[in-house]
Amino acid sequence: MARYTGPVCRLCRREGEKLFLKGERCMSPKCSFERRPYPPGQHGKERQFRRGRASDYLLQLREKQKARRIYGVMERQFRTYFQRAEQQSGLTGANLLSQLERRLDNVLYRLGVASSRAQARQLVQHGHVMLNGRKTNIPSALVSSGDTVSIRPESSRKSYFRMLRQEIDDRRVPRWLSLDTQNLSANILSLPAREDIDTTVNEQLIVEYYSR
Fold first, then answer.
1. Considering 21, 25, 57, 135, which has the largest number of Cβ atoms within 10 A of its Cβ?
2. Which residues contact 186 (CB under 8 A, 6 or more apart)?
3. Which one is predicted more confidently, 186 or 25?
4. Where do the domains of the chain lie, and which CATH numbers do they carry?
């Protein structure tokens, strides 16, 4: 399965804002974006000050790239999500974000089981997660209303999950999810609406990009 394996702090610097791709490190002084808040590359500082008015195409492209990088999705898969969103009723942009939020790795991140989506992806791939009582290793699996996400009983005895039970905070869980902190299981109460998604993405620009 294709995925980006380069330095993720470079992606934040390219988009000009924190994308919180490294979890807790992004909140510390060690964050690369705090130390070098300019585009990557040899002439990054110069481009920061010489940049003029961005074209409409550039704004649309950057917004699409930002959404891709936040959710850790490659280009072909992202386009597939967009095509599905177009076929659904309602606003295409909101449908697109709803699909991305329903990814299993994102659900674990929203629940606080992982500090970043990359860590959540790893937990799924290593077989620690069950969807509706069945083990799954597919981070891109989409959850639906009424589904249950839980940690495998064998995995829940590991030190990481034992410590997680003491630290996890169900008050930060979005309203479309419910979390049982002791059993590390969650129910999908409903599909996420646009107002439930706090991602700093202007989905209308993405729609305009694919509608050129």
1. 21
2. 107, 111, 148, 149, 150, 173, 177, 178, 179, 180
3. 186
4. 1-52 (1.10.1050.10), 103-188 (3.10.290.10)
